[in-house]
Amino acid sequence: MVSQHAQLYRALLRQLKKASLPPHKINPAISSSFRTLAEQAKQSQVVLEDLGNALTLIGAQREYKILLDRYNPLVDLTAEERIEKTAHRVGLNMPKTVQ
Description:
The chain has 99 residues and is an all-alpha fold. It has one domain (4-89). It is built from 4 helices and no strands. The protein has helices at residues 4-19, 28-40, 45-71, 79-89. Helix 1 runs antiparallel to helix 2 and helix 1 packs parallel to helix 3 (45-71). The protein is elongated and about 65 Å long. The protein starts with a helix and ends in a 10-residue tail after the last helix. One of its GO terms (cellular component) is mitochondrial matrix. InterPro entries: Fmc1. One of its GO terms (biological process) is mitochondrial proton-transporting ATP synthase complex assembly.
């Protein structure tokens, strides 16, 4: 049977893999920090709870980003791109600018 500490650590690694850019490339410093915390969790219930909170936060943050991209596709565009996309949404085209 796998201990609760190992389960939390593995779940954290899975969440980090899903949330990382580029995909499936975890920063080694973050991974080693969580491993150290997982080893410390064997002696302290507080650290175990902190690992659980970190897992919840990473999962919620990833879900938030997915929902933000789905329902607000203009969030990561520049001002000019946003104006052009908004004009297209209502059926207009932006005038050509001479540079």
